[in-house]
Design a protein that fits this description.
The structure holds 2 protein chains of 2 kinds. Chain A contains 13 helices and 2 strands, in the order ααααααββααααααα. Chain A is an all-alpha fold. Chain A has a single domain (4-18, 27-316), classed as ABC transporter involved in vitamin B12 uptake, BtuC (Orthogonal Bundle), CATH 1.10.3470. In chain A, β1 (168-171) and β2 form a beta hairpin. The longest helix of chain A is centred in the first third of the chain and has 31 residues, at 29-59. By secondary structure, chain B is an all-alpha fold. Helices cover 75% and strands 1% of the residues of chain B. Chain B contains 16 helices and 2 strands. In chain B, a hairpin with a 2-residue loop joins β1 and β2. In chain B, α3 runs parallel beside α9 (187-213) and α9 runs antiparallel to α12. Chain B is globular, with a radius of gyration of 22 Å. Chains A and B meet through α1, α6, α11 and α13 of A and α6, α7, α13 and α15 of B. Chain B: It is a multi-pass membrane protein. Chain B: This is Urea ABC transporter. Chain B: It is found in: Cell membrane.
Chain lengths: 330, 363
């Protein structure tokens, strides 16, 4: 069995490479800014991954543990498209476009996989969340991982970042890598478009109606079946985009999803179910605290501390940061 | 007449006796290698009983994807003792490599066998108690609890890999020699381990059965079917859940210790995410989820299949595991025992309808 965590460590290593290049002990303004930037950067990665989950898990309350494998799909799509460009596009200025092309492709393909999954499996398990968790995690997740392993091989593969994202923005003595800024920007764009869709379009309004009161929405002529499928497709699609972005951070492998899925769920659990704002707060909260803990101690102890912090946080807010008060008992 | 014989044959008591008989004669029929495998599967079966207590018909809804960790904590406790006995009290080689000269504080209690065995049950129980208390107290349950239990796996495995100088890192602990002076690889010792495992399996099984057949089990079923109702009746579901979770972790620790004795190695990949999921599959497949006998069958069946696959087609095991998972969850929510019960029921109904028909024709 391939160690699930070695990849994680690599990715996390990429996340924190800036951090450890800094000198310890001497805490100046620069260090604080850098740590904060790293925290925000990690937060934006978590947000990007958790956005899809905030929709399927947060809004629909459907557990899809194969979410991590959609990240993987997005990452491998970027890899494949890069190779197509390598073979068919001469190394001109257009070559770098592969990355721009792969984002919408990842969105569409991941959404397609999501819909397929919803129709064949998850739809039948809406009322059985734990079973849905098992079927998607132990079943679909493992199958997709093994499929990736058969196609691309077990070792990690690298995607060469496009040249316009190499280097960084220099501010004084600080360097902010373009790839990190790009991910931050991508997360913000995704967030805004999701917000726009849910709160400013007729279709998004229908989705919210179904989430809030399924029977009533159905009575008013909303096709809940269609809405479920569409919401699932959107959630899955954005997850594919997240996978695409992860290729900027390091090598990708069949278990890349496994290493991120729990973090993503943590974001949603901490943020509170059913609100996008919760996911944003959860992502940046976990990102910043994680970076600070890892700065003060090391990567291993930092992980333990963040877990303890989450448990402690849930003592204070058992249903997450943003919660809807209701007097109903289940 | 024939039917009643059938029913008697298929009743639980007969199944128990049958399984017991098979386990009894197994050492005579199987080679040392196979017997060792069976012993390993039975250690898994012990864990599966614990998991079934938690997730099964009792307190249904508490699904732990973190039992690999409790299993692992037990296993590491035993392994640390075995390692120290193998080195004769000197510090293990991997510690020397990372430049340590004295036995670290955490390892000191594990010089003493009895203490090590006790800690192998106590440590998992304590960890489970804290996680269980802090989550059930806030009525965090269902999927949320499952995800937290999974996060625990990641945290502990990262910790074990990260603290190379204390745990041996990714390669884990191995190269054991003796236990109480007996060579652990000798076939007579391994046979003894097999008997110990069978005995503990029986003990755990009957203890759990006693627990759930009594009043305690009834409360657990009440909590499963209507947690709030039980709360209004004056029971404290959180306490019950915490207790059963702690108990199940202790059982997992016990299983882990038996595992190490028979397999001779423990490493983080054996206790991580994938093994933790597999454990749930044993219970789901053997099923009945709450029959307590189902998980034993499930654990042995899945692991036999796994060994069979790994011997001939290792690369297809994951596919098989995945497909099995989906099929069991979607089509066999009550596992093999459920299927069996359904079949039994149908036959019984058929008899009833037959007798009704007979009565009608007579009148």
């Amino acid at each position: 069995m391939i160690s699930d965590l070695s990849i994680k460590k690599e990715n996390m290593g990429a996340v924190n490479f800036l951090l450890h290049s800094g000198k310890k002990g001497l805490i100046g303004l620069n260090e604080i800014i850098l740590t904060l930037f790293n925290g925000i950067s990690l937060g934006s990665i978590l947000l990007l991954i958790a956005l899809g989950l905030a929709i399927t898990f947060g809004l629909m309350n459907v557990i899809n543990m194969a979410h991590g494998e959609l990240i993987m799909a997005g990452a491998y799509i970027t890899y494949v498209i890069q190779h197509i460009f390598m073979d068919y596009v001469p190394p001109t200025q257009y070559y770098d476009l592969y990355f721009i092309v792969s984002i919408p492709v990842a969105l569409v393909v991941a959404a397609g996989i999501g819909v397929l999954l919803e129709i064949t499996l998850i739809r039948h398990l809406y009322k059985r969340p734990l079973d849905s968790l098992l079927a998607t995690w132990g079943g679909v997740g493992l199958i997709l991982q093994q499929t990736a392993r058969s196609i691309f091989g077990a070792p990690n593969v690298g995607v060469i970042s496009p040249s316009f994202l190499s280097g960084g923005l220099e501010v004084g003595s600080l360097i902010f890598p373009y790839s990190r800024l790009f991910i931050l920007g991508l997360a913000i764009v995704c967030l805004i478009s999701i917000y726009y869709y849910f709160y400013r379009t007729a279709s998004g309004r229908r989705v919210r109606a179904v989430m809030q009161n399924r029977q009533m929405a159905e009575c008013l002529g909303v096709s809940t079946r269609k809405v479920d499928m569409m919401t699932f497709a959107i959630g899955s699609g954005f997850t594919g985009v997240a996978g695409c972005a992860l290729t900027l951070l390091g090598a990708i492998g069949p278990t890349i999803g496994t290493s991120y899925i729990i973090d993503a769920f943590m974001v949603v659990v901490v943020g509170g179910v059913g609100a996008l704002f919760g996911a944003v707060a959860g992502a940046f909260g976990i990102g910043i605290f994680n970076t600070i803990f890892e700065y003060v101690t090391d990567a291993t102890i930092g992980k333990v501390l963040i877990f303890l912090l989450i448990i402690a946080f849930l003592q204070w807010r058992p249903s997450g940061l943003v919660m809807f008060r209701s007097r109903s008992l289940d | 007449m024939q039917n009643t014989i059938y029913q008697k044959l298929l009743s639980n008591k007969v199944i128990f006796s049958l399984i017991f008989l098979i386990l009894l004669v197994a050492p005579m029929l199987l080679s040392d290698f196979r017997l060792n495998l069976l012993g390993k599967f039975l250690a898994f079966a012990i864990l599966a009983i614990g998991l079934d207590l938690l997730w099964g018909g009792y307190t249904g809804g508490v699904l732990s994807l973190g039992h690999g960790i409790y299993f692992g904590l037990g296993a590491y406790c035993m392994a640390m003792y075995l390692k120290l006995e193998a080195t004769g009290g000197a510090i293990p080689d991997f510690m020397a490599w990372s430049g340590m000269s004295e036995l670290p504080l955490i390892w000191i209690p594990f010089q003493y066998p009895i203490l090590a065995i006790l800690l192998g049950v106590i440590i998992p129980a304590v960890v489970a108690f804290f996680l269980g208390y802090l989550t059930f107290r806030n009525r965090i349950s269902g999927v949320y609890f499952t995800i937290l239990s999974q996060a625990l796996v990641i945290v502990v495995v990262t910790l074990f890999i990260g603290s190379q100088n204390l745990t041996g890192g990714t390669s884990g602990l191995t190269n054991f020699e003796t236990l109480f002076g007996f060579h652990i690889n000798a076939s007579s010792t391994q046979t003894a381990f097999y008997w110990i495992t069978v005995f503990i399996l029986g003990a755990v099984f009957f203890f759990s059965r006693m627990l759930v057949k009594g009043r305690f089990g009834k409360v657990l079923i009440g909590i499963r079917d209507g947690e709030n109702r039980m709360r209004f009746l004056g029971y404290n579901p959180s306490a019950y859940k915490t207790f059963i979770y702690t108990l199940s972790a202790a059982i997992a620790g016990l299983a882990g210790m038996l595992f190490v004795l028979q397999v001779g190695i423990i490493s983080p990949t054996m206790i991580g995410i994938i093994p933790s999921i597999e454990m749930v599959l044993w219970v789901a497949l053997g099923g009945g989820r709450g029959t307590l006998i189902g998980p034993i069958i499930g654990a042995v069946f899945v692991n036999t299949a796994k060994t069979g696959f790994s011997e001939s087609y290792p690369e297809y095991w994951t596919y098989f595991l995945g497909i099995l998972f989906v099929l069991v969850v979607v089509f066999l929510p009550n596992g093999l025992t459920g299927l069996f019960e359904k079949w039994n029921e149908r036959r019984k109904n058929k008899n009833v309808s037959n007798s009704i028909r007979v009565e009608k024709s007579v009148s």
